[in-house]
Prior knowledge:
By secondary structure, the protein is of the alpha/beta class. About 30% of the residues lie in helices and about 30% in strands. The chain contains six helices and eleven strands. The chain has helices at about 15-35, 65-70, 100-105, 105-125, 195, 205-219, and strands at about 5-10, 40-45, 50, 75, 85, 90-95, 130, 135-140, 150-160, 160-170, 190. The strands form two sheets. Strands 1, 2, 6, 7, 8, 9, 10 and 11 form an eight-stranded mixed β-sheet that branches. A three-stranded mixed β-sheet has the order 4-3-5, with no helix packed on it. β1 (about 5-10), α1 and β2 form a beta-alpha-beta unit. The longest helix is centred in the first third of the chain and has 21 residues, at about 15-35. It starts with a strand and ends with a helix. The mean pLDDT is about 90.
Amino acid sequence: MDLKIEQWGQVPYKEAWERQTFLFDQLVAAKQAGTPYENRLVFCEHPHVYTLGRHGKTGNLLMGEEQLRRIHAELFHIDRGGDITYHGPGQLVCYPILNLEEAHLGLKEYIHRLEEAVIRVCASYGVAAGRVEGATGVWLDIGTPRERKICAIGVRSSHFVTMHGLALNVNTDLNYFRYIHPCGFIDKGVTSLQRETGQEIGMEEVTQRLDAALRELLG
Length: 219
């Protein structure tokens, strides 16, 4: 599978969602018509924002509209799986918009491969990460009281075409997670590559490593 890379930089969530939706609809239409299309990996960052998935609970946001304004954040109810999560500067977001049938993947295996790509990127920085049964995403210190998430994953698939994707905490301000129950969990923490390694990580470098891992696993 050929994957076109798009670098959107730091883009407001609403704009990114609209651009994603346009590309998603375009791919679905081309697939149904049997005309050429492109599979894409979109990389970007967002200003401070919380997103709540289709089956998420509003009670997992621990503040009201006035408090959101005070911390310069927005809230969006969106059409992906999963509960509530945070996006912000220093977090690498990847939105794969691709045809799973071309990749010969079902949705479960696709999510597994997104997780595997992030696990490989973490390992390249000396950070041992893995999966928690029944909890999508990538985690550290699994099965211990210090279990914590470093990457959230939430996708939408229709006609075997995907949108939304993953959010890897690189140099993220983790204080913003204090205002939510991340992904609906009240007993698990969050972390970042910066916290785990003790140093700021270059976003371009992480993007290149994640791109390479995704190409190997999805291409």
